[in-house]
Design a protein that fits this description.
Strand content: under 5%
Number of helices: 20
Helix content: over 70%
Number of strands: 0
Order of helices and strands: HHHHHHHHHHHHHHHHHHHH
Structural class: mainly alpha
Low-confidence stretches: 375-386, 389-393
Distance between the termini: 27 Å
């Protein structure tokens, strides 16, 4: 490794926590499913972790690997389209009716019951999302496959990557390769889940708000805040991301920030009102608060929200905040995982049905988009910020 590569490698160590989380959430996922195929699941997992770590080091620290990727910058969207088509083809190889994962069923049953005029939260598979999550899914439900939502989410993520990195940067392809090489992401695609897409749309929203917040008139800010309230009406963890990013964006305009948050809250409550008025007792018994509240106790949720606000008030750059949001989401899911392991046993929580490891993917889009890679700080002068700033770290 030449001196330049060594310098880049040391710079890449700044991404250590994000890389460790990436390896953990994919490694534990590999272990779960490898254990169903072989008694050497630990060996398979260690080989995966070693290979993924080596791949990251090569992508981030070796000019011999990065230079060919940089030369492909003119074909970024062609490559992205090819990857999207590949993911779609992979998804079609698996019959959703033969997959014993309930999230696709929960999405479809909620929409079907609503269209039939029946209370949607009475679906057999206990839907846990807030109402707007299912509204986002409806177009794909009518197209015949809710799994297309994940393919669209991949396209949105590719667009965010194009904003994150300059056109000739090899890091564009590095982020996409880390995503499509993630077993937990491929699992999301195959089972037609919605967890990854939920977080990608939330990330896309805040990137767009950051680009417009100083230019927008009051009416436009109101519309953005209303949209934020709709996205808050997907899952409770969205509130943690909001609490990390919003205080930073409106640090110099606190009153505008308070009004922005107030509109978000009102719109969020407005999305719940029809279902509360429909049947308040059923909403309390089988609605999203009761289902999502089973994963973490109230005191843990309060601590997580406080931590998110502290990150938002003390963060110095958006890039650092997205990293903080990803690590916080991981920490919350990990805490829920530990709680499940203490109650039901570690083995059942990993290899059985004691805990849904898929929730770890919440952190993935935020961590991948915030990766600094090697030499990123030094290259910043050639790449002005376009909504994913690195300044101040």
């Amino acid at each position: 490794m030449n001196p330049s590569d060594k310098t880049q490698f040391r710079a890449g160590l700044a991404d250590g926590p994000s890389l460790l989380v990436y390896l953990f959430i994919n490694g534990i996922f590999v272990f779960k499913y490898a254990s169903r195929l072989t008694s050497l699941s630990w060996l398979v997992t260690l080989l995966y972790i070693a290979g993924a770590a080596a791949g990251f080091v090569l992508l981030a620290g070796s000019d011999r690997v990065r230079s060919p990727l940089a030369k492909l910058h003119r074909h970024y969207w062609m490559v992205s389209l090819g990857l999207a088509l590949g993911l779609w083809i992979v998804m079609l190889q698996f019959d959703p009716e033969q997959i014993r994962v309930s999230r696709r069923t929960a999405l479809e049953d909620w929409i079907r019951l609503l269209l039939e005029g029946r209370y949607p939260y009475l679906a057999e598979v206990s839907p846990s999302g807030f109402p707007f999550l299912f509204v986002l899914t409806m177009p794909f439900y009518f197209l015949g496959d809710v799994g297309l939502l994940q393919i669209v989410a991949f396209g949105v993520f590719a667009f965010l990557v194009s904003l994150r990195d300059p056109k000739d940067s090899p890091h564009r392809f590095c982020r996409l390769l880390l995503l499509v090489g993630s077993p937990i992401f491929l699992y999301e695609v195959v089972v037609r889940s919605d967890l990854f897409s939920n977080m990608v749309f939330l990330l896309f929203y805040w990137v767009m708000v950051e680009r417009r917040r100083l230019k927008a008139a009051a009416a436009e800010r109101f519309l953005w805040a209303a949209l934020g309230g709709l996205l808050l009406s997907t899952r409770a963890v969205a509130l943690l991301v909001d609490a990390v990013v919003l205080p930073h964006l409106f640090r110099a305009a606190r009153l505008k920030g308070v009004l922005f948050a107030l509109v978000m809250g009102i719109v969020f409550l407005a999305t719940l009102a029809p279902f509360i008025l429909w049947d308040a007792d059923l909403f309390a018994q089988v609605g999203p608060f009761s289902i999502q509240g089973m994963y973490i106790p109230g005191w843990m949720a309060v601590l997580a929200l406080i931590a998110a606000l502290v990150c938002g008030l003390t963060g110095r750059s958006l890039n650092g905040l997205y990293r903080a949001a990803g690590l916080l989401l991981f920490a919350v899911v990990f805490a829920a995982f530990v709680r499940a392991a203490m109650q039901q046993g570690l083995s059942r929580s990993i290899t059985g049905d004691g805990f849904d490891l898929g929730y770890f993917i919440f952190a993935l889009p935020f961590l991948l988009i915030s990766l600094d890679f090697s030499g990123r700080r030094g290259a910043r002068a050639a790449a002005p910020s376009q909504g994913l700033s690195d300044s101040g770290e």
